């Protein structure tokens, strides 16, 4: 089964990191990504640009409305994702727990809906 591992983090903390700290976090993510590629769990994944680049789209009464940024003001922002293949939820949770940001942010684990 496929699971989406949504990575939530404090975006401001990342912005304020020193270049050395940012490089260390990037290396951790690189090692994690390589490990799940080698194990066969990796399907896709990417980091996201800051929320300042986001646009929220809604359609109301047939009109498309756009708002700069994300809709909700939150303490943590969606920062990236991994799409993984895992035999069950416990395996997906174990994969999520190894994502570096799990130590300070949060990782949402969501099964992917399969349409037949």
Instruction: Show unreliable segments.
Output: none
> Helix share of residues?
25-40%
Structural class: alpha+beta
Read across the widest sheet, the strand sequence of neighbours is: 2-5-1-6
Largest sheet, described in full?
A: 4 strands, antiparallel
Strand content: 35-45%
N/C terminus separation: 14 Å
Number of strands: 6
Query: How is the quaternary structure best described?
Result: single chain
Radius of gyration: 16 Å
Bulk shape: flat
Number of alpha- plus pi-helical segments: 3
SSE ordering = EHHEEEEHE
Q: Whole-number average pLDDT?
A: 92
Question: Any chance you could write out the topology, listing elements then pairs?
Answer:
Elements: E1 2-9, H1 11-15, H2 19-39, E2 42-47, E3 55-60, E4 63-68, E5 77-85, H3 89-97, E6 106-111
Antiparallel strand pairs: 1-5, 1-6, 2-5, 3-4
């Amino acid at each position: 089964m496929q699971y989406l591992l949504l990575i939530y983090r404090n975006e401001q903390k990342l912005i304020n990191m020193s270049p050395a700290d940012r490089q260390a976090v990037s290396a951790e993510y690189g090692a994690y990504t390589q490990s799940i590629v080698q194990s066969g769990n990796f399907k896709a994944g990417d980091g996201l640009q800051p929320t300042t680049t986001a646009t929220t789209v809604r359609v109301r009464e047939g009109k498309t409305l756009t708002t700069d940024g994300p809709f909700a003001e939150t303490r943590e922002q969606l920062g990236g994702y991994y799409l993984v293949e895992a035999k069950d939820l416990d395996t997906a949770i174990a994969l999520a727990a190894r994502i570096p940001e799990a130590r300070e942010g949060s990782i949402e684990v969501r099964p992917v809906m399969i349409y037949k």
